[in-house]
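Here is one chain, start to finish.
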Amino acid sequence: MHFSRQHLLFQQLSRVFGPSQGRCIVHSVRTLISCRPNCLFTPTINNSINCHTRTYAVVVPPSTNESISREAVGLESEVVLNFVENNNAKIAVIGMNRPQAKNSMSKNLLARFNEYMNQIRYDKDVRVLILRSLVPGIFCAGADLKERLKMHPSEIGPFVSKARSLMSDLEQLPMPVIAAIDGAALGGGLEMALACDLRVASISAKMGLVETKLAIIPGAGGTQRLPRIIGLSKAKELIYTARILDGGQALEIGLVNQAVEQNKMGDAAYHQALRLADEILPNGPIGVRMAKISISRGLQVDLATGLAIEEACYAQVIPTKDRLEGLNAFREKRPPQYKGE
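Its structure:
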């Protein structure tokens, strides 16, 4: 039995991560990495991976060197892009992996994040994006203050402007975006989560816009998105006091959509986000995308204009093959097979 390069890769990853149970992400554009720090990969003859809950197809990055290093599989990358495949639909997963700095936002992290977002934006097979951390106990600690201290005052404004623009780009991605908050999301880290459509957190996760403690304000959209999500008065209270909430408190005020008890692996919110994504995948992708546009843009205008936006979005789904497939599936009493066409 011969597994060639794939088998060597699986063996190395199993040694690095160690065995555990759970779901793995293994189909990657530029890297191959598990969905969490501990995961067991089992190779099969047909170049796939068995992982307790699913079997995933594998695409191994081309290389002339048969030796597999940590760098070759992207374990040293500060941002990692992977895909979970379900039939012809994909869940994209962007994982922040900067443990030495608690996933704080450096220039490099933002650049890589932007690169992957641009790649996902035009992939019609990606139905949902999940944003998560690969560092236990941390989602994102906000700005890299050590890097910030080295900046000249003239550099700070443009850097914050880039971060703000990145959050807007994240918010405007065509597919639903879910933030899986398994650890601390502070300052810019919470602002990143606020730019997502949905937020899932562990009960033990900590969240807060704490910038006023540093005599500044949230500068990557926090002062605008937080009031739109939880209401004006409560947003002012949290920003003025720099209060930090846990996942349960965040759920009570509507800051997160769901809150779950943390598991031993520290990735309960991520797995809940996957379950939420699985609920979205069977639905018509064009319909979901048009619904996102209608809701997001409609909230920024008066009701009459919002209704006009809804009408325009509805017009986009009428000529689609998916709409006809939905009607035919209903008539034939079978699950629809949507293709995003």
